[in-house]
Amino acid sequence: MKNIAGNEVSIFLYRFELRGNSIDFVLNESIAEDMYPEIDEKMKPLVHVCCETLLRYRHLSVSNTIMDGNFLVTGEFEVMLSKGLGIHFAHDEKQRLFQDAKLIADLLGEVMDRRTQEMKKGKQHTPHLIDQPPNPKKIKKELEELGNARLLEDELRWIAEGQQIRPGLKQLRPDDLPRDVTASRGYDHRGLCYVFEHKKYGELGRIVMIKAGEQKMLMQADLYLGQEKQESTIAKKKKEIFEKVVTTVNAGFNCNHQK
Hints:
This protein is of the alpha+beta class. It is built from five helices and eight strands; from the N terminus they run ββααββααββββα. The strands form two sheets. The protein has a four-stranded antiparallel beta sheet with strand order 2-1-3-4. The chain has a four-stranded antiparallel beta sheet with strand order 5-6-7-8, with helices on both faces. α2 (about 35-55) crosses α4.
């Protein structure tokens, strides 16, 4: 068996497969049968954010498998993107994607190690059903925790490098945002992420601060429509409110860069 790079595989762990406009996470069946609930919960937000990142590049993939992770015959773990896809990623984004891909592999390795120890002791294992759909609210909370952890790592690095904390972005107050709009930390491989929600219309979108060079930051705004069609009344309302959010954040962003 070989991975998408053509290297000999000892143990297949997972792959991300294109399916229309979405991506399926395909897990090794034996590992899935041995899965532990607490490990499954740790893995879900990592799989979610990897899918989000890969979806942005699905149109550039030359194969149905856009990314896979395997243990090679050498014993090393290898994560690979579809041929030639890596050149389209920003360096930091690809590094974060691969880091989370490795974390998924580490969790799956933990499943295999624990199950091996149980078998040696003659302990029975109760299968854990993992085909249940993830809880969106729980995933959002876990992504917020990952985002906070990533921010702390970045801030410690900025301090060590003598840089400004939260470079390029003025800290917002609740009153700065449109009525009934709240902001929370998100998690995105591109950079620091902020998710905006409306009390009535739900998630509006996200704003990501992307590092571009040593002293530059770019602001990327992504409108979230979910299942709404662009021409629907709700979609238009969400777009209108989110544009106000973007204008407010952009004003603070530009203000900092003009100093």
